[in-house]
Amino acid sequence: MASTTSADVLPTGTRIFTTFPDIFFIPEFVFGGLVWILVASTYIDPPNPLGWVMFVSIFCFIGTTLWFFIFLCGGNQSSIWPGLDAGFHHVAVVFYLSASVILAYITFTNVQKDIKIYRLDIAAVVMSHVSTLLYFLHSIFSAIRWRRS
């Protein structure tokens, strides 16, 4: 029986652009960055809940960037990395889900007089939910990969 090493489980280098679920890194960058930009460009009163949304979008954007470069440079070859990968993406799902619900509630209750700002708020809600879905899919498939390792 052949043994499975972590090198067989987690990709390194440019293989992350062709393996599943690591191909989700790029859409997570794009949609997470859009959430960050759209929330930063709107005005909603009170601003306190938007602080959590901004924290989540920046935390996940920076965390995904670091994760991406660790995978790209091949620093993920220890046996602990499949579990860390699943754990990070699970935390990102929980954070983004809470931020998406808060953002949707604030947008729904604070209908702005300025239609441009209201449209930006709705776009931020949509992008936040898409980011939640992407992180959820990445989390599920990372957990499956972790269980197989």
UniProtKB/TrEMBL annotation:
Gene Ontology CC annotations of this record: membrane
The main place the protein resides is membrane
The protein's matches in InterPro entries, at most eight in alphabetical order, are given as: MAL (IPR013295), Marvel (IPR008253), MARVEL-CKLF_proteins (IPR050578)
GO biological process, alphabetically ordered: myelination
Q: Where in the cell is it found?
A: Membrane
Q: Which domain of life is it from?
A: Eukaryota
Would the keyword S-adenosyl-L-methionine be found if you checked this record's keyword annotation?
A: no
**Transmembrane helix recorded as keyword:** yes
The record's Pfam families line, in alphabetical order, gives: MARVEL
Transmembrane feature ranges: 23-44, 50-74, 86-108, 120-144
Q: How does it sit in the membrane?
A: Multi-pass membrane protein
The UniProt record lists the MARVEL domain at 16-147
Q: What keyword terms does UniProt attach to this protein? A: Lipoprotein, Membrane, Transmembrane, Transmembrane helix
**Recorded GO MF terms:** structural constituent of myelin sheath
What is the similarity comment for this entry?
Answer: Belongs to the MAL family.
Protein name stated in the entry: Myelin and lymphocyte protein
Q: Which gene encodes it?
A: MAL
